[in-house]
Fold:
Amino acid sequence: MSEEHILVTDGLSKDFLGFTAVDNVTLKVRTGDIHALIGPNGAGKTTVFNLLTKVHQPTRGTMTYDGRDITRAKPAQIARMGMVRSFQISAVFPHMTALENVRVSLQRELGTSFHFWRSEKSLRVLDERAMELLTMVGLERYAETEVHEMAYGRKRALEIATTLAQEPKLMLLDEPTQGMGREDVQRITELIREVAKSRTVLMVEHNLGVVSALCDRITVLQRGAILTEGTYEEVSSDPRVKEAYMGRAA
Amino acid sequence: MTTKLGYAVALVLLLIAPFFLYPVLLMKFLCFALFACAFNLILGFGGLLSFGHAAFFGGAAYITGHAIKVWGLPTELGLLAGAAAAGIMGLAAGMLAIRRQGIYFAMITLALAQMAYFLFISAPFTGGENGLQGVPRGTLLGMVDLQDNMAMYYFTLAIFLAAFWLIARTVHSPFGQVLRAIRDNEPRAVSLGYDVDRYKLQAFVLSATLAGLAGALKTVVFQLASLTDAHWHMSGEVVLMTLLGGVGTIAGPAVGAGIIVALQNLLASGPLSAWVPVVLGVIFVICVLSFRRGVIGELRAFIQKSF
Structure:
């Protein structure tokens, strides 16, 4: 817990059939920060994310989370260590109610998840905590609604509640406001600010308004490599960043 | 509420049925209903299409037959031996197949079942083409003579009900919740820290064990274990029963099994006897084209819509 950096990558690289999608990325995420990963399309943001969450194995380089080497860890394993991700497309369980969505995330702690002879009524002890989390994201009225009937913005909020149920030390958010209307963006931004008070957040985000409002530190990627890193003011005044986004002025 | 009423009516019907219908036919129905419900556990609730469940059904049938006839085990232990053997086969097959999904999972299970089938043809204890005949039914706890069809029927019904309860409980258990989550969105379940392969494997082993129990029971009822039980036709038939009755519903597969067994029995004595597979094929096509949720699935949707 006392580590200064909760997540450190060293020389992280990923090749796909000779194409280097991520090139020698050395990233340090400070404990307690909201850290953003930005960059133009194809810069390798999502690939970095997938490397961190073990969807892909890195070709070279190492990753350290909370002082432990996670380069070869399995996806479910890092989740149990407190590093929990969200997805670009809303990751919910559509045929379960909102309450069940959060509860299934809480229930691993009970240690009864392999018990097929026990009644699911035994999970009701978790309902109170699940309701708290739903209330926190403003979904208490939808507890009994099957999730496929809910609006997109609410699904994203539910996803955050489900992620929070894991009590993550590090939350990885993959474009949390993508595809949202302005009102929803506002709500999710507030929500992220709220939940980040007691944990670290690393997010990929396109919406620079959200990034400037939230993030303590920003890493800019371009063609798989780190272009620059700093606060929003530092990064946004860097001419190389403007060039990467807008192209070289003619 | 409607569901509870439905179960109560079904239970009464099952209790009085042998006074009106031939008990052996009813027992055949119960064995296949159990087989289909067990299969549905992995297809409907695990989201994995196994095309090799006949290996568990047939394998258990042989083990039970051998255990009772040759080793002289009491009937109850013979049944348990068959189910346990199927569970072990399920564990071995599952460990190889579970990492694959969709068509690849179906193909691996089919290939393994074919290997089991050829093993059963050539192994000496199965009786090859002749099968294992004349398996004694024995007695229940050394007291009730199971040679009597009525006694055997109620014994079979008791086992069916216990297994059916276990399946319903599994679906509505903490384990069942995780299984639902995995079927709904597997990557998300992984990101919440669940080792999804281990959950699928447990579902597969449970399904194989209960499919084995069905096969074992069938051996005792008919006093026969044969290659038919392990043939891939059997794997196909259980898919048909499950889809027809309603995949992913608890009672659906039993209803599907009832329809198939009744049809086979009715058609076998009529002019269409040579055409049974064709008739079943037509029914299957109609089912897939027009009522995809199966009998119980459509019924449930209808009730939800109307009330």
